[in-house]
Amino acid sequence: MSDGEPQRCGYVALIGAPNVGKSTLLNTLVGAKVSIVSPKVQTTRRRILGIAVEGRSQLIFVDTPGIFEPKRRLERAMVAAAWSGVEDADVIVLLVDATRPADAATRAIVDKLKQAGRKTVLVINKIDLVPRPALLEIVDRYARDGIFDPVFMLSGLTGDGMGDLKAHLARMLPVGPWLFPEDQLSDLPQRLIAAEVTREQIFLQLHEELPYNSTVETDSWEERRDGSVRIEQSIYVMRPGQKAIVLGEGGRQIKRIGERARAELERMLDRRVHLFLFVRVKEDWTEDRERYEAMGLEYTS
Ligand code: GDP
Ligand code: MG
After folding, report:
1. Whose CA is nearest to atom 8 of ligand 1?
2. Least confident of 1-10, 275-284, 291-300
3. pLDDT tens by residue, 132-153
4. Distance (Å) from CA 224 to ligand 2 centroid
5. How far apart are CA 214 and CA 294, in angstroms?
6. Pocket of ligand 1 contains residue 126 by CB under 6 Å
7. Which ligand is nearest to the CA of 67?
8. CA atoms within 13 A on the CB side of 226
9. Res. 87: pLDDT tops 90
10. 43: Cβ below 6 Å to ligand 1?
């Protein structure tokens, strides 16, 4: 870095079909966990900013919910949040999963980008899973769309190939002052991050409709004199049967969710955490305006 170079700053939107690895890449780019990750689709529900510095550039990455054909109100709000992340961005990065490069959701996004005439950086992700000749075929296929330049092949999981992407994006940003303090990594308030960490455990430990029929909110956050923090959270589910599953036999399931979430929170906050979880049945939480405000989503999408 030389003093003659101007400061740059801008928004880089990471978009793609569900499960292509957007949140994993964001965390690797930022060098810290700011967005939760699970093997299930639709883990990310809102726009999350992750902030990184490269030379004189401040890169503000926008992690978005996956883009797919929405049906429920919650899904419509998630997809709307994803597209709004795109419209405001200085640079768009489309992620494609190298193990399923031509799925319908990805092609639908490409069509929409073409209509909007937006130049897009293409990332072929998960190259740790696919042999090189197959990767080159994918690149060829996308070159025909005519909107992708340049193309990167990388693994958000291992970090392989990521340095080139970051350096390139840093040069693409507009000249201007940094918008965040240089040590800030995310725009999510701590209470929201804490709720996300518990929601991640629900996605990792529970199955079928449960992750999609539940949400987590932080109800209280109390700083203790001994430097620890006491956090109370509600897990909302839709039916009494779901509450029974979240609690588990003899409360074993909720205990394991709480233990893992607490361990993750202690790592992230670097302090002792006392976490208290309450499961509440609220049949219509996905139609409840208050829940959307808590998640940072628009109710009427
Ligand atoms: P998102 O829905 O696009 O945000 O995807 P996530 O980041 O939540 O990742 C979805 C799944 O893909 C998770 O199980 C990740 O561990 C996995 N994954 C993400 N990136 C990579 C990668 O580069 N290589 C491999 N092998 N798996 C990845
Ligand atoms: Mg995600």
Report:
1. 37
2. 1-10
3. 999 999 999 999 999 999 999 9
4. 33
5. 13
6. yes
7. 1
8. 5
9. no
10. yes
Structure tokens, 102: 């031509």
Q: Is the pTM of this model over 0.85?
A: yes
The mean pLDDT of 149-164, rounded to a whole number, is 96
Residue 228 lies inside a defined structural domain of this protein: yes
Are residues 118 and 149 in contact, defined by beta-carbon separation less than 8 angstroms? no
Question: What is the CATH number for 265?
Answer: 3.30.300.20
How close is the Cα of 43 to the center of ligand 2, in Å?
5
* 143 shares its domain with 262: no
Is 90 exceeded by the pLDDT of residue 4?
no
- CA 158–ligand 2 middle distance (angstroms): 17
Q: If you average pLDDT over residues 43-49, what whole number do you get?
A: 92
Same domain, 156 and 49: yes
* Token pair recorded at residue 202: 């629900």
Q: Is the CB of 258 under 6 A from ligand 1?
A: no
Q: Ion ligand 2 — residues with CB under 5 Å?
A: 22-23, 44
> What is the domain-level CATH number for residue 39?
3.40.50.300
pLDDT above 70 (res 3): no
**Residue 60 structure tokens:** 């503000």
Task: Tell me which residue has its CA closest to atom 9 in ligand 1.
Answer: 21
* Tokens standing for residue 40: 């299930």
